[in-house]
Specification:
The protein has 240 residues and is of the alpha/beta class. It has a domain of 123 residues: 3-Layer(aba) Sandwich (Rossmann fold). Helix content is 35%, strand content 27%. It is built from 8 helices and 10 strands. The strands form 2 sheets. The chain has a 6-stranded mixed sheet with strand order 6-7-8-3-9-10, sandwiched between helices. Helix 3 packs parallel to helix 5 and helix 5 runs parallel beside helix 6. The longest helix has 18 residues.
Length: 240
């Protein structure tokens, strides 16, 4: 798009039958910016994420990653998706692989790195998120917060231009939430990525992000700087 926006979403809409899940959603994410999307369950957050990387094709609207239009039917969507890191809500780790194995597998299977180069890169990313001493453990041997950080390391290892985290604190013990926040803040300081953070935890959303969007019934009903984000502000703009 020729500016500092790493991601541009313009008038994105999606309906399932008579249910209009997204209604002309527009927003941008700049390089080095963390944008949090907050709102009640069922308001379209997950559908929005799926539309951004065309896992669910939108009915209307357009999405760009840098100057490449994701929603253009002629785009090489599989190539573009390699530049979009996605950390799922429930980790989606391979249970039969160690933390190290989970991070390195995409590097030699998708990026076609040698096994040696993939392992070195995986160790680097696990160290970055504070898990070097746990890299030989399997997911069942890790806490929820540690599994979440393995997911972050796995995405970072692919060198994405934008990182999407879907409710990274869901089901995580409160004393672990700060570790997730620190990992997000540190990686963005070091990498200058654009980050989309979908979150229900308002205090975490405020401290981990730069800007917020409140979604309700498929629309952006409020946006602003994250220091202005409080539970009262969010609830005031939601329809119950």
């Amino acid at each position: 798009m020729g500016n500092d926006n790493i991601l541009t979403v313009k008038e994105l809409s999606k309906a399932f039958g008579d249910n209009r899940v997204l209604d002309k959603i527009s927003f941008t994410v700049e390089r080095g910016e963390v944008v949090v999307i907050i709102g009640p369950s069922g308001t379209g957050k997950s559908t929005l994420l799926r539309c951004i990387n065309s896992l669910t094709p939108p009915d209307e609207g357009r999405v760009w990653l840098d100057d490449r239009e994701i929603t253009d039917k002629h785009s090489d969507i599989n190539r573009i998706r390699q530049d979009i890191g996605f950390v799922f809500q429930h980790f989606a780790l391979f249970n039969h692989l160690t933390a190290l194995g989970n991070v390195e597998v995409g590097l030699y299977k998708v990026k076609k790195l040698s096994r040696e180069a993939a392992r070195a890169k995986a160790i680097e990313e696990l160290t970055r998120v504070g898990l070097r001493e746990h890299m030989e453990k399997y997911p069942a041997e890790l806490s929820g917060g540690q599994q979440q950080r393995v997911g972050i390391a796995r995405s970072l290892a692919m060198d994405p231009k934008i990182l999407i985290l879907d409710e990274p604190t869901e089901g995580i013990q409160p004393n672990i939430v700060k570790q997730i926040e620190d990992a997000i803040v540190q990686l963005n300081r070091e990498r200058g990525l654009g980050i989309i953070l979908v979150e229900q935890n308002v205090p975490f959303a405020r401290s981990a992000s730069d800007r917020f969007l409140v979604l309700d019934k498929g629309r952006v009903v409020l946006s602003g700087k994250s220091e202005e984000l409080t539970n009262d502000v969010v609830e005031k703009h939601l329809t119950f």
